[in-house]
Backbone:
């Protein structure tokens, strides 16, 4: 009798699969439970559920690594652990125009133009910063030490650091500058990702542009603010995300945590690839999809006010960097990118993604943009 019931259950399952197959245009459009069975996702703990926006597919780690092929910026979420995202209900007020020009321009005049080069030289010295490797852990710990050194006597008073542990080896890093004004419970975020890839843990991936450049810029923005004794009204957080290259896993975990605790996040700006090409004439790409239109418009005004760079609209496609993790939970997010999407650095995700192939001068223009963003969005305490 038990054997008969078991055979009947299998028969019913086969019928469900057949019906779903003919009802759907492709395997990728099948119900998740059926895709799970067909891909062995239910029986293979290493399989991950990948969301491409128009479809969701169970994939192996090797298949996921293959998505980040040479020269290509991938655009997908790994939603295996994040299928029921909480959303924040926010009423962020994005400024219409910059209003702290004198202060920001003073900070820019004191910017150390060679500091980012030293940071990038160190970051590209690791064999790779792939999220499962010891090198990736060492890189985050090194970055943490740099923030601690820069914070100086403010460390432990209004500057705090947190290593966010994940189920994989590499942690994410959150550096918090506590607001000193009435709006200290509101938070402004600027971030980049600290991992790199060229196809997996055994491939050399210096990741100077992707995304050593963004992580180094965020550090230099922090250093410049500290040197100038900046005290914000709102709280400011500086993020370095783990595991961006395999589906925005680090930033998703942090965004989900913030959504779960009801954090008041005013805005998020992602710096991911800011050094190519080796000039400051080529316009940057101002991402116009899966972002906040109001914040992106304001970023464009900051660009015109504080930098030598021009911009043009750019469509990157769904989840192409960590800003998407914040958009997904209802936060106003922006993603200024090194060029219009598709014209970016062709050496990313290879062993040739080196400092020698990008422009320190171009990176410094993004640092100016980041300084403007933090000061204008967080407001200085008078």
Residues:
């Amino acid at each position: 009798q038990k054997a008969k019931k078991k055979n009947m259950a299998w028969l019913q399952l086969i019928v469900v699969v057949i019906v779903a197959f003919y009802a759907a245009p492709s395997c990728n459009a099948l119900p998740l439970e059926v895709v799970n069975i067909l891909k062995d996702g239910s029986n293979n703990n290493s399989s991950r559920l990948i969301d491409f926006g128009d479809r969701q597919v169970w994939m192996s780690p090797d298949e996921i690594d293959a998505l980040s092929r040479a020269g290509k910026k991938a655009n997908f979420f790994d939603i295996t652990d994040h299928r029921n995202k909480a959303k924040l209900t926010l009423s962020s007020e994005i400024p219409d125009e910059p209003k702290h020009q004198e202060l920001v321009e003073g900070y820019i005049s004191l910017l150390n133009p060679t500091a980012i080069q030293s940071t990038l030289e160190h970051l590209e010295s690791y064999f790779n910063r792939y999220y499962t490797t010891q090198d990736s852990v060492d890189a985050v710990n090194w970055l943490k030490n740099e923030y601690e050194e820069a914070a100086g006597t403010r460390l432990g008073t209004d500057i705090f650091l947190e290593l966010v542990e994940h189920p994989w080896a590499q942690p994410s890093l959150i550096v918090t500058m506590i607001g000193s004004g009435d709006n200290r419970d509101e938070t402004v975020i600027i971030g980049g990702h600290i991992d790199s890839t060229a196809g997996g843990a055994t491939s050399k991936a210096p990741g100077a542009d992707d995304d050593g450049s963004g992580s180094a810029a965020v550090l230099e923005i922090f250093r410049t603010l500290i040197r100038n004794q900046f005290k914000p009204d709102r709280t400011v957080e500086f993020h370095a995300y783990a595991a961006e290259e395999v589906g925005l896993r680090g930033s998703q975990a942090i965004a989900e945590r913030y959504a779960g605790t009801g954090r008041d996040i005013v805005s998020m700006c992602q710096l991911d690839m800011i050094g190519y090409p080796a000039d400051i004439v080529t316009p940057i790409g101002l991402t116009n999809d899966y972002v906040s239109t109001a914040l992106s418009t304001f970023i464009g005004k900051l660009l015109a006010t504080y930098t030598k760079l021009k911009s043009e609209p750019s469509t990157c496609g769904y989840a192409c960097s960590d800003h998407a993790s914040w958009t997904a939970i209802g936060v106003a997010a922006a993603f200024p990118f090194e060029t219009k999407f598709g014209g970016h650095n062709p050496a990313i995700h290879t062993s040739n993604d080196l400092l020698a192939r990008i422009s320190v001068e171009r990176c410094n223009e993004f640092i100016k943009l980041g300084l403007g963003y933090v000061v204008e969005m967080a407001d200085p305490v008078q």
Notes: Residues 96 and 298 are 7 Å apart (CA to CA). The chain is about 35% helix and 15% strand. The radius of gyration is 22 Å. The first strand starts at residue 48 and ends at 51.
